[in-house]
Amino acid sequence: MKLGLALLLMLLLTACPDDQLTGLEPPVAKVPAFGDTFIEGSIGDASTLLPILASDSASSEINGLIYSGLVRYDGQLKVVGELAESWEISADNLTITFHLRQGVKWHDGAPMTSADVLFTYQLYIDPETPTAYAESYLQVKKAEAPDDYTFRVTYAEPYAPALMSWGMSVLPKHLLEGKKITASSLARHPIGTGPYRFVEWQGGEKIVLEANRDYFEGSSYIKRFVFRIIPDTSTQFLELQTGGLDFMALSPLQYDRQTDTLAFKRLFNKYRYLAFGYTYLGYNLKRPMFQDRRVRQALAYAIDKQEIIDGVLLGYGQAATGPYKPDAWVYNADVPRYAYNPEKARQLLAESGWVDTDGDKILEKNGAPFQFTIVTNQGNDLRSKAGEIIQRRFREVGIDVQLRVIEWATFLKEFINPGNFDATILGWSGGPEPDQYEIWHSSKTGPRELNFIGYKNPEVDLLLEQGRRSFDRPARKKIYDRFQQILAEDQPYTFLFVGEALPAVASRFYGIEPTAAGIRYNFTQWYVPKSLQKFSR
Amino acid sequence: MYRYLLHRLLMMVPLLIGITLISFTVIHLAPGEPTDMQTQMNPQAGSDLQAKLHKQYGLDKPLPEQYLLWLGRLVRLDFGESFAQDNRPVLDKIAERLPVTILLNLLSLAVILAIALPLGVISAVRRNSFFDRATTVLVFVGFAMPSFWLALLLMDWLGVRLGVLPVSGLKSLGYEYMNLSSQLFDRISHLILPVFIAALGGLAGFSRYMRSTMLDVIRQDYIMTARAKGLSERVVIYKHALRNALLPVITILGLSVPGLIGGSVIFETIFAIPGMGKLFYDGVMMRDYPLIMGVLVIGAVLTLVGNLLADLSYALADPRIRNSE
Amino acid sequence: MVVQRKSFWVQVVWGQLKHNRMALFGGLIVLLMFLFAGLASLLPGDPAAIDIKQALLAPGGSHLLGTDDLGRDVLLRMLYGARISLLVGFVAVGISTLLGILVGALAGFYGGWVDALVMRFVDIMLCFPTFFLILAVIAFLQPSIWNIMIVIGITSWMGVARLVRAEFLSLREREFVLAARAVGASDLRLIFRHMLPNALSPVLVSATLGIAGAILTESALSFLGIGVQPPTPSWGNMLIAGKQTLGYAWWLSVFPGLAILVTVLGYNLLGEGVRDALDPRLKD
């Protein structure tokens, strides 16, 4: 299933670069060569280059190039070793022993050893460290570094996300020990073990990295990496067209309608693949009107997901049926899908007592009209537009919906945290790890926790607990299949869509191999043939 | 003159205190907390992170105490540390961004003066002529045009289609490797569009103001006298009238500082210029209290300084003022 | 005095204005925009009617100004947007003018330490880059249309306050005020009945210009994503939505952009014209 989709995607993707045009160009020797500069645009500046403190995507992207973890995902989303050469998991699934690569050096020349890994772990669980990522490491019962190249962790209970949690960036002990992490100068001048080393950071303007020639997996080809901060996406797009950027995530409209010119196709290749993450309409289950499952199912029937995908994403996305994207191994396609059916919606609403008794085209129950407000955050066009379409469709079945778009900090403080909302359009992003404990378990409904809609289902609780304790993929698949089935029936969210990532990359870059993981996973293998190199320094 | 200066400086003290008080109050009216941004909607975030951050930032103290603590540090030029994850001193962050903003504002002010003053003078001299009307409409079109829209249109036209000007940023990649003249050229070509856009909105105000002070002056007795003495119209207008009409413009210069700084948010965002306006906007979105308060105070102080400079030059130019104080 | 003032207004202002073609042009634009805003409810059709199959149609045919990315009629949205934009302009300026008059009258009427104190406060407020204050407050409150109007209002009253104060300071010593005071008129009566009507003309000019400024401020806020929020259409947020499709669907940015341009221009020309008409120095 996954392979099929991946192949299909590959076909779609490889069809994109313009074949008939290459005939007109002088033939290029497609030999990997060192050199050139890759310029990427970002709407936001990085916040800190200490990965333990960073929680924004700009910082994560830079940090991913500077630091390395023990393990990482490869292009097939398989866990492979990075700083760890190999590892063993004990028969009881409680202990992982990592064997580290030898001879790895920090960018300042100091050797990297298991002491750094142990130090990093201790830093994560230190209550003085204001990190957002302590959760996974608090599950560890014992961590030890028996010798320079061995690192061993023991868990109290089997914990399936454990292995991949060691993909966290390992930090240099010799530069951080005994200092306050929040005051460290590494936040502005990072030292890692990754494929790129830090050169300069001009606040609000750009971050420059240079290939680490001593990278333990061999130097990457592209010599310089420049991260330009361009806050406005329209400016970014103009900058892309002039060649001021080599990489930009396009909007569906840009991808579909504004990049079809010959000039653009000559300079750029476009790619598309399903992004990790989905957008949903979540119902506050503490509100009486949403407590009846038939009502939530009716709302699902009243929404035309394809219309949203066509209208908001211009078709560049797929309907979501649950919390996993359709090409993930854990995805269960065999769940109720609620195809658009306003008749069925009205019927279900009537069954649960919502009928239009006074002829105002709005349904009532016990004299109260069916009214509620959908809140979403500012700055996400897709969400507010989806909201406008949903508002329209709900009105057609007799539900009066208001839409409010609220700035993020206020949105969290005033609406989500105190549970002061009816319904919300939001998105979750995730990775290949299927554990969804934090979002759906009934123990996570407290203030500031992620199950803020207050979903409680004993069977789901049980499945989530089993799921994170099991290391056996077929067994996990069965557990999460059932989990998706229940969610689809319960409809605590109406899962709306999974969007596609639509990057454009300057066509002089070769070695890009799109997979289910996207295109950036093998960035170190990208190259510009000598004759096409644009920047000589 | 020194007494005048001293007097002016002393008068700034209550203003400064008022500025800090308002800056502080504005921030603390707000719902939403700085710590929300770092802890929320993150599947990995533990719930006690909030408390950790709260304590780290001193947000657990009562407001008056927070204000006095802040004011106390401010006096020693300590603006505190940013709430952003980098925890850098606010003053460093502002110092890094301020020069660009000041440079752009000074340049656009120069452009405004260079264009608006002659326009105003000619409009006044030829009141109700075609020139007067046409320039009036034109400068107001410049004012009425949403600046980011015009900026995008020009970037598309001059930057993408014609390729004669860079689209955004302050300098090209590889600037460090250029020779001096190319560096200068590179700088200038990057500045043309932002300075033009920033100046355009200000033309209307200045040229109209110049026009009306000029009209005022032309009607004064001594101009009438000069005319009666048989001096040529040219000498009357450009020697006697203009000098006196320029004086009030100095005051307006000082007063225009806050407007220019405020507008920098927009053009810094659209042109990807790392200035103080963008810094402020990012700070607002992140609830970075010390940064927001810091920029508000610095912005207001810049205005104070602008006003002071304007008043001083006025006093220098007009002895009546300096002696009367 | 007041009666006399009214006839003065009608005769002199209009007498001046009708010779000032630019001001007339400005007035005409302002009138037209009101007409458009009024027209919104008369036209059939729903500005929020979404039809994905009709998305991004070029102007012409059944959609005179085309459709947006959700298939909504741009003309209808422009007309409803006119209401919102004008509403923002008028209410914001209403608030700032009222505040300015109150503060200015207080300072100008009582003078002395009241004046000193109040004007110091005005000086402090004038030091802040207004747009920074607006940004801070708007982002912290929710950017509802009412909050936007209120915040623009409470951050832009200082100019009016200064104008009114200056007028009051000079009116204070005028004979008709002294006479009214002598016959025992109360402070309130003096302020509102006798002095204020005579101080209103510069306020009127500044209000006209203020409306233009408020419309521009709303569009700048929209650019930063904190203006009037969808689904409510304002010219500002329509222009921003249109900027995403600049090179493709030009009609989504050109129409709202021109609407802002023309309206702001109209208010400015009208305001300048009235200023000229009221300015005794400019009468030949």
Protein topology:
The complex is a heterotrimer of chains A (537), B (325) and C (284).
Chain A: H1 2-14, H2 19-22, E1 35-42, H3 57-66, E2 71-73, E3 79-81, E4 84-89, E5 95-100, H4 114-125, H5 134-138, E6 140-147, E7 150-155, H6 162-165, H7 173-176, E8 196-202, E9 206-211, E10 222-229, H8 233-241, E11 247-249, H9 252-258, H10 262-267, E12 268-270, E13 273-274, E14 278-283, H11 293-302, H12 305-313, E15 317-319, H13 342-351, E16 364-365, E17 368-369, E18 371-377, H14 381-396, E19 400-406, H15 408-416, E20 423-428, H16 437-440, H17 458-469, H18 473-490, E21 493-501, E22 503-506
Chain B: H1 2-28, H2 34-39, H3 49-56, H4 63-75, H5 90-125, H6 130-144, H7 147-161, H8 180-218, H9 221-228, H10 233-255, H11 257-270, H12 276-285, H13 289-317, H14 319-324
Chain C: H1 2-17, H2 21-39, H3 74-110, H4 112-127, H5 130-140, H6 145-154, H7 158-171, H8 175-182, H9 187-223, H10 235-243, H11 251-278
Chain oligomer state: heterotrimer
Low-confidence stretches of chain B: 40-46
Largest sheet of chain A: 7 strands, mixed
Estimate the global geometry of chain B from the Cα principal axes.
Answer: globular
Strand content of chain A: 15-25%
Task: Write up this protein.
- The two termini of chain A are 46 Å apart.
- Chain A has 537 residues and is of the alpha+beta class.
- In chain A, the strands form six sheets. In chain A, strands 13, 14, 15, 18, 19, 20 and 21 form a seven-stranded mixed sheet that branches. In chain A, strands 1-10-9-8 form a four-stranded mixed sheet, with helices on one face.
- Helices cover 30% and strands 21% of the residues of chain A.
- Chain A contains 18 helices and 22 strands.
- Chain A has helices spanning 2-14, 19-22, 57-66, 114-125, 134-138, 162-165, 173-176, 233-241, 252-258, 262-267, 293-302, 305-313, 342-351, 381-396, 408-416, 437-440, 458-469, 473-490, and strands at residues 35-42, 71-73, 79-81, 84-89, 95-100, 140-147, 150-155, 196-202, 206-211, 222-229, 247-249, 268-270, 273-274, 278-283, 317-319, 364-365, 368-369, 371-377, 400-406, 423-428, 493-501, 503-506.
- In chain A, 47% of the residues are buried.
- In chain A, a hairpin with a 5-residue loop joins strand 4 and strand 5 (95-100).
- In chain B, 77% of the residues lie in helices and 0% in strands.
- Chain B has 14 helices and no strands.
- Residues 40-46 of chain B have low confidence and may be disordered.
- Chain C has 284 residues and is an all-alpha fold.
- Chain C contains eleven helices and no strands.
- Chain C has helices at residues 2-17, 21-39, 74-110, 112-127, 130-140, 145-154, 158-171, 175-182, 187-223, 235-243, 251-278.
- In chain C, helix 8 packs across helix 9 (187-223), helix 9 runs parallel beside helix 10 (235-243) and helix 9 packs antiparallel against helix 11 (251-278).
- The longest helix of chain C is centred in the N-terminal third of the chain and has 37 residues, at 74-110.
- Chain C starts with a helix and ends in a 6-residue tail after the last helix.
- The chains are: A alpha+beta (537), B mainly alpha (325), C mainly alpha (284).
- The interface between A and B is large, with 64 and 57 residues.
